[in-house]
Amino acid sequence: MNKLTLTAEWDKVFPKSENVEHSKVTFKNHFGIELAADLYVPKDTSLKANGKFPAIAVSGPFGAIKEQSSGLYAQHMAERGFLTIAFDPSFTGESGGEPRYMNSPDINTEDFMASVDFLSTRDDVDPERIGIIGICGWGGMAINAAAIDTRVKATVASTMYDMSRVAANGYFDQANNAKARNEMRKALMAQRTKDFKNGTYDLAGGVVDPLPDDAPYFVKDYYAYYKTPRGYHKRSLNSNTGWIKSAGTSLLNTKLLAYANEIESAVLVIHGEKAHSRYFSEGAFEKMTGKKVKVPAKLDATKNWNMTAGNKELIILPGAVHTDLYDDVNGRIPYDKMEEFFKANLK
After folding, report:
1. What's the pTM?
2. Beta 83-87 vs 125-135: how paired, if at all?
3. What span, in angstroms and rounded, lies between the C-alpha atoms of 319 and 19?
4. Residue-wise pLDDT tens digits, 66-88
5. What is the pLDDT of residues 176-198, one digit of tens each?
6. d(CA 46, CA 94)
7. Average confidence (pLDDT) over 12-19
8. What is the CA radius of gyration of the chain?
9. What does DSSP assign to residue 161?
10. Sequence-ordered list of residues with C-beta below 8 angstroms from that of 18, at least 6 positions apart, any chain
11. Do residues 251 and 141 make contact, with C-beta atoms less than 8 angstroms apart?
12. Bridge-partner residues for 20, per DSSP?
């Protein structure tokens, strides 16, 4: 296996905090793929309990890297007393895995579990106080990891996508029928044949560029993050060449949240009121709790809307769109709420 190349300089899309120690670390998942991560350790050692920190592993969005949103979340949570890592999923960023720019619901769920392996064996981490954060498509992966990994005591899914649902049903479930799925299968299999014949993998391309005037509003939101200095990074799939065209094969044939209703640990699901993707979070909450979500047509702009069932909570942020939870441009990420949630459940 090739040795990973880790960038030495700070090349994040967000400024470095003076309140945490930052370093690069690596660890392997159960498929033998070596993952690269940024480690953030609070400088204030008084935040330890019995000499150990609570810890959180972070990843996402889908097609992003640790130098973008996940690193931002990880650094902020480290400032609040948690030892954190933001990792690049298999096949992406600085992590290993061939072919490049592939994804898998199984392997990417395992990536979260491998991060827990790494954290739980550190001398400065309390293995009984480990949580995870998944952003966008990795929100679904995080909930799937929580359904299998009983070491995960608390999970946050932020602006989540259920990637298996969108792969199988299309956006807004508009292609949720056998005929449409069979057409998708035919296209994927034709692409696989082409790739095998050519000995290379065609790439789907990242966020569309140039941006058409008639692009859906959420595509414009993606562009504003991934294609501008706000969030662009040279290693980000969404900022550049995108995933392999046939990468969605496994997602089309897998249901990520199949056992989400059996999660016993705490889960906090956060989404924006105006996000095109809000139905994924509502669906995940309904799957976990059996409770129907009924968000009012008009929210109080000064208050978050929430719904709880046992140790599961759904929070809707008034006025926020999908990418508002990628960074702090609009001050939308509810770090105080996440800190409160993890401190209550990692104890």
Report:
1. 0.97
2. unpaired
3. 31
4. 999 999 999 999 999 999 999 99
5. 999 999 999 999 999 999 999 99
6. 32
7. 98
8. 19
9. -
10. none
11. no
12. 42
